[in-house]
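Ticket #4471: structure output looks truncated?

Reporter: J.K.
Steps to reproduce: submitted the chain below (149 residues) through the standard prediction queue, then opened the result file.
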Amino acid sequence: MKNVRIIAGICWAVAGLILIIILFPGLNSFSVSVSKLPFMKLNPRYTGGEVATQLISEKCTLDVRKPVFNGFLKERNSGFVQMDWHGNVPEIIKDSIDYDNDGKKDFCIKVNRTSPESALDVYNDKVKRIIISTPTSYGWAVRVGLSKE
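Returned output as attached by the reporter:
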């Protein structure tokens, strides 16, 4: 009986190995087709969220994204809002942002692209601090921390 189990286990392992070898070349196209299914979405903590407003100027475009508070099971009390500057971004960025679209400016961001320093003037108690300010392949991105209360 012990030998039968060993032989069955070896046959199962060999069959699995052969199946993997046969399917391996097709995994790339399979993963692409699965990623295009409607329920497959990237996490907003990775992408910065959906674009809420877009401000277009002569040289660059500012995308202000929707605030992100999502967690694994429920929304968190702390989150962020991301701003992306595309195009020919100036060396010194200074923009007033209304992230919640209530008609009042919530903060003013000042970024000097030649130095690692960024400044934040806060006009809303929900705005906390700059989480990250970094160059990207398309221009510049800044995440500003928020709290729900």
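Triage note (M.O.): checked the attachment and the full token line is present. The chain has a mean pLDDT of 88.
Status: closed, working as intended.
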